[in-house]
Design brief:
The chain is of the alpha/beta class and about 725 residues long.
Length: about 725
């Protein structure tokens, strides 16, 4: 239903509740795209025309809901238990051309928790949830007579395998086989002591309510079972139910070894226990950051050094206003709020963090603390960093394809594909998290800026996991944030009409760039791309130099911009502010549908000549930040175009690979190249993308050239300044 702009919602509320109260739970979406319009339909007013199109049916288990469940392949006799919720995707019985999703449960609390935790995963047709965890999930399969049924080969049921261990009011829930009973008991003890320590730091009385902690063996499994990609998260509160936390927690781990990200949800739980769901969000986030000891494996001191003097920190007023806070990247807003809270605590000399958070004067005190730290020394800058060696980058763009938890960034499938790239001789991978724009002339940019992100997307923790996995096998990483436009538009069309719109665009783009600059720094990425093919904006040289300055203050490594081939690449005015000249190289090699090898070679040498001229003029080495050819006839005619209707021709792709590599390989000004693109999903799991060389003759060409040593030249620098 995510692709529809209008969804009808048929609600069967429990006694005493209103249909609108259910809609309120769906108000916050983890999607980077605009949410669809919800059209509320109540049973007493439902007419067939109101129920056409995509339909969401919501309510506790009962005769009315069961009648809808009976129209799906899920057995209507298997009504969820009182603590469970059920989500099923099927066909709208009122409009068979449209989908229906049904959400029900054994109790109203379970239904509310299911709605608050997001939508049905695209990976499954049905799922049973308990405590925010999928305890049963799977797919339907076609049966005889045009019917559908549960597919036994794709049905996972964990309910009989759930174990638990207790320490006082803390109950640890785990799946048998993930860890031993002894390991679960030890974790329960550690969680109990950690939370008790947090409560005391907040000025609480030193006792805990009922707490349930669900343990998952790794980040991928946690995201698959909960649709939340964070290392830990706190479930929304339901009256009378335990405080529930989910954590990615390997069997042999301890709370000390998993780092602050796994403890962050415990810190939030302690804040809820002592103070309730406090407002504003900025103060709550900053307090959790301080209690947990940082974010993304980095302690508060690292974040303070990173943000100090960067100009990226929001004003204290924004940190104390929920709407303004949510408009900022949490990677900037949360540490900034924590830094100001810490300063207020120090100024109070003895007041507990809990006392500070209750203080009605908190807004004024945080503003005063921010004013006091104005003019603090700047963080590391390009001018003060040590020289960086220029090593030739045998790169491939690793594309998040499969678009799910089990086959996108952060998955074992992605790790398998990187190991395969390593055997081909690749030494670098490019990772591309996407933002979205609906209109190239409006400055609204949607990206994963909040903590609550979409499992299965190029979310922050999947990106970090992929960087770590790449480094673990000797691959270096270029992070290349990009913008995707809907409606068939291209990034190069982005251009505003008025100065006011330009200011709004660059303000939002700066948030986007700052987010990925600091994420790349936290993950230890090796290279950052500050923009991709935004040729309608790059004449705004002053603003782009400001964007680059922001990136420099947050990321220590080298920077480049990925310019579109042709005019943008050849005339860009701010190459001097960057370390590499970046080229998305789609120069045509020939107009002839059947050229000779020499004809292709001439075209490739012409493309190399364009790149060399820019390199010589700027004194910068060139990176082909993207280069590729689709596996179609005449691949060299319009290399950027995979949608021309031309017939498949893998050998044409391989010929273009050979011609380009031969023309560029020994050029002393070339610092590397990244082939577009290699998917994270397993071979055969989906149709191979036209640009992918995997399993095609171009893969052999890539392995042949990447297996070679690249000659160095005494005429070209060996380090970046």
């Amino acid at each position: 239903m995510a692709g529809s702009d209008r969804v009808s919602v048929l609600v069967f509320p429990e006694p005493g509740a209103t249909a609108v109260s259910y809609l309120d739970l769906m108000g916050s979406s983890r999607s980077r795209r605009p949410a669809p319009r919800l059209h509320l339909v109540t049973p007493e007013r439902a007419a067939p025309r109101d129920l056409s199109g995509p339909l969401l049916v919501v309510g506790p288990a009962g005769a009315a809901i069961t009648s809808y469940l009976a129209t799906t392949p899920y057995p209507s006799s298997e009504v969820p238990a009182s603590s469970e919720a059920l989500r099923v995707a099927s066909v709208n019985p009122w409009d068979p051309s449209s989908p229906m999703v049904l959400v029900t449960g054994g109790g109203a609390g379970a239904v509310r928790a299911a709605l608050a935790s997001g939508g049905l995963s695209r990976s499954f047709d049905y799922e049973v949830l308990r405590g925010g965890m999928r305890v049963r999930y799977g797919r339907f399969v076609a049966a005889s007579g045009g019917k559908w049924r549960i597919d036994p080969a794709n049905d996972t049921d964990l309910r009989a395998r759930l174990g638990h261990a207790e320490q006082g009011p803390v109950r640890v829930v785990y799946v048998e086989g993930d860890r031993s009973v002894a390991e679960a008991r030890l974790t329960a003890l550690q969680v109990h002591d950690e939370m008790l320590g947090f409560v005391r730091k907040l000025g609480g009385e030193g006792s805990l309510p009922a707490v349930e902690v669900y343990l998952h063996p790794n980040l991928e499994t946690k995201a698959l079972r909960t649709s939340d990609p964070r290392p830990s998260h706190l479930m929304p509160a339901s009256p009378g139910e335990p405080v529930r936390v989910h954590m990615a927690f390997p069997a042999s781990a301890t709370l000390a070894s998993v780092g602050p990200d796994a403890r962050l949800a415990l810190a939030r739980a302690a804040i809820r226990v002592v103070l309730g769901d406090i407002e504003p969000k900025g103060a709550a986030g900053g307090a959790a950051f301080l209690l947990a000891g940082g974010l993304m494996g980095r302690d508060p001191a690292w974040w303070q050094r990173r943000l100090s003097g960067s100009g990226a920190s929001p004003a204290a007023a924004d940190l104390m206003d929920d709407q303004a806070y949510s408009n900022h990247s949490y990677l900037v807003a949360m540490p900034a709020s924590a830094r100001l809270l810490q300063r207020v605590v120090e100024n109070e000399r003895g007041g507990s963090l809990g006392t500070i958070l209750r203080d009605p004067e908190l807004r004024r005190k945080m503003s005063r603390a921010q004013a006091a730290q104005e003019g603090a020394p700047r963080g590391p800058t390009a001018g003060s960093r040590p020289p960086i060696a220029i090593t030739f980058q045998k790169g491939v763009s690793l594309a998040h394809e499969g678009y799910g938890v089990v086959d996108g960034y952060g998955s074992e499938s992605a790790a398998v594909q990187m190991r395969r790239l390593r055997t081909l001789g690749a030494e670098w991978v490019a990772l591309s998290p996407y933002a979205f724009m609906g209109d190239p002339h409006a400055g609204t940019i949607f990206f994963e800026s909040s903590e609550e992100q979409s499992a299965g997307s190029e979310n922050d923790h999947a990106l970090l996991a992929t960087i770590a996995s790449a480094h673990g096998i000797g691959l270096k990483v270029m992070v290349k944030p990009q913008i995707w436009l809907s409606g068939g538009h291209w990034t190069g069309e982005v251009a505003m009409r008025t100065e006011k719109e330009w200011r709004a665009f660059f303000e939002r783009y700066r948030e986007f760039l700052a987010h990925y600059a600091i994420l790349s720094a936290a993950g230890g990425a090796d290279l950052l791309v500050v923009g991709v093919e935004l040729q309608g904006t790059t004449a705004r040289e002053v603003e782009w130099r400001q964007m680059i300055s922001t990136a420099r203050s947050l990321f220590d490594g080298p920077l480049t911009y990925a310019a579109n081939w042709g005019r943008e690449f050849e005339t860009l005015a701010f190459w001097d502010a960057l370390d590499y000249v970046g080229l998305d190289c789609y120069y045509p090699l020939s107009k002839d549908p059947k050229p000779t090898d020499e004809g292709l070679a001439q075209g490739a040498r012409s493309a190399a000549s364009h790149a060399e001229q820019v390199s010589r003029r700027t004194g910068r080495p060139v990176l082909l930040t993207e280069v590729g050819f689709p596996a179609i006839a005449g691949a060299w005619i319009a290399p950027h175009d995979e949608d021309t209707g031309r017939v498949p021709d893998p050998e044409a792709q391989a010929r273009a690979y050979r011609a380009l590599l031969a023309a560029f390989w020994e050029r002393p000004w070339l610092a590397g190249l990244y082939w577009w693109k290699w998917p994270t999903s397993p071979p055969g799991s989906r149709p191979e993308a036209p640009f992918s060389p995997r399993g095609r003759p171009a893969e052999d060409v890539l392995a042949e050239w990447y297996g070679r040593d690249r000659p160095s030249s005494p005429d070209w620098p060996t380090t970046l300044p």
